Amino acid sequence: MITLKNRTLRNILALIVSFGSFLSPVAAKEQEKTPLSARGNTLLEKYTKMLDELSAEVKKSLPAVDEAKKSAFMAARAEWSALKYPEEGAPAKVQSDYKEAVTNIEAKSIETARALLTDLDGFLGSDKLDPSLMKIAIITQATPHGLAEFAQAGAEQEKIINDLLANQALMKQILEAGGANGGAYGQAMQIYAAIQKKSERSREVGSVFQRLALGTSLQTPWKIGEEKKGIYGLVLTTELRSDQVERYMYYEKCFLEGELDPGFKDLTTWEYRFATDSPYSNEDLTWCRKMMRTYRPDHITNPDYKWRYARIVKTDVPYGTPADADGPLLGRMPELGSQVQQILALGGICGPRAFFGRFSLRAFGIPSKPSTQTGHGALSHWTPDGWTICFGGWWSVAWCGPQGGLDLLLETQSRKFFDDYLKVLRAQWIGDALNEKDVNIRLYGVGGDFWNSLAFCKKQVLVKDAELKALELTGGELAESDHLTGDELAKIIEIPEEDRQVVISGDGVITIPAAGCYSPKEPTDRVVFMRSWDNKGSQVHYSRLGSRPELIKYRVEVPAAGEYELTAQLATVSFKQDMIFRMNREDPVTHPIPYTQGMWGEMQPLRVKLDEGKNTISVTARATNRGVTFKSFQLKPVK
Questions:
Q1: For the segment 388-414, what is each residue's pLDDT rounded down to a tens digit?
Q2: What is the side-by-side strand order in the sheet with 386-390?
Q3: Per-position DSSP letters for 235-304, written without gaps between them
Q4: Fold (topology level) of 497-637
Q5: pTM for the whole thing?
Q6: Domain boundaries, the chain
Q7: Burial, 408: exposed, middle or buried (Cβ in 10 Å; 0-12, 13-18, 19+)?
Q8: Dist. CA 591–CA 569, nearest whole Å
């Protein structure tokens, strides 16, 4: 595990507390109430009455709880909440004592919860109270005032709320997916209706398209320029965000055209929220896929999902402050392209690298979240085997949006057992009915009244009983560094003979496949052999990483001695680059190569002299260099 610098976790947590970020979404929203119209006050009374009546109904239906078991459980929970994180610089024994105390009280909390969960398993496993509980959860999360504020805008808005509260199947799917961001149910349903109006496919309940549409709608986007004004950074507005509709349509099209990761079709509604919600333009997302298919297709086909797509950060986004960027990257060198293209071209410290990692993942439809840490930016993302953190420390020192890292990890793990996870949700809904305090989503396991605490411990029980282990960190050692880690050597691939054949056209132009070199014969930490995208030939990548420069050597039979123009079909993601070419035993020549934004381009001709018969061409670069991918070289006779 890496150690991150600047401030301790306690310092960060104290700072967060001082800004009130530990308020529940409902509490936070209640602080910023918008005055209601006469119609709004009537609706407020309606939703308040509905919540009160439903809550009273649920309270009457709750089973008796063994008071002794409950008392033991809540005592353990109180003991957990009372634990104090060691002060910065505390002696090693104080820190080890704290870790031991956490381990012990967590075990005690889980075991006391088990006794209650055994008694309540049948009750929590029944859907009898779901119609009432789901309405309670939605009204509580949105608040009666929030619903009234949205519905007072007109008959259409009021109908949206009424239709939602009458649709049990939809309410269940929404709540299973985590509910609407900031409790903005009206706005989310408005977007969802707009998507379904535009896309017939999204109306097929349970399909990939319907799940995608709902997940996209529930993840209420930030309003540019107002990111820090709302609940947990979310801005609640009655404006219809048509860009969310466009974002759904974009991903629908990409999916239908086979542009996204194969695992995209199997994501849950909850996971789709973090696949489509991003500040990147659709044009940038399209560019990213094209760039990687051209420049580093091996990152797309990587069987290790922990590294798939995100590995381009390691290989091609150098760590450090770029010499060509005066301060922050954003907008400094627009001639290099968009913000993400500038990051890839220039490199950056932890924040830009994590940003680009999330960008590359979401371009292929992989759910990803920020993983902010002490003085450091990292990322977390989905894999078929669970979520992992890239380029940062462990979950315990991370927070992912409003949620602490350990809390997110527990959420992702417990959701794998969804039949039992419904019992977690029902316990939380009961907590809403009783107006309970939530378990703190930032300070892992701290706080929470009875039913919400039971829900939290149920998640822990699910993970513990399944003996589910968290995935290891991905590139944790690269969090704030840029060095070799011992896994740079690419796997050996078979290059078909036709991909090695030199071709001489009728006009004497000689084409040399990049993969047709005689040295090296196998991949090294500098030279990577790759199948081109869709198996359309092969290509060679000269990496920016590696212990020392390396020669790529070619032999070519030339029909006549003389001068030739040497060009190359290549792709680069950075600028101001040179390569060194040597013909036979002539002096090496340094020659510029173009910045192609990751697409295939052509090098300006380099005039060289060749002998009749066998010739050797060597290609290399001086360290430090940036990466370049070669498809082929051409020699054109100078007449």
A1: 999 999 999 998 878 899 999 999 999
A2: 386-390, 376-383, 368-373, 398-400, 403-404
A3: PP-SS--HHHHHHHHHHHHHHHTT-S-GGGGG--HHHHHHHH--S--HHHHHHHHHHHHHH-HHHHS-S-
A4: Jelly Rolls (2.60.120)
A5: 0.91
A6: 183-277, 497-637
A7: buried
A8: 14
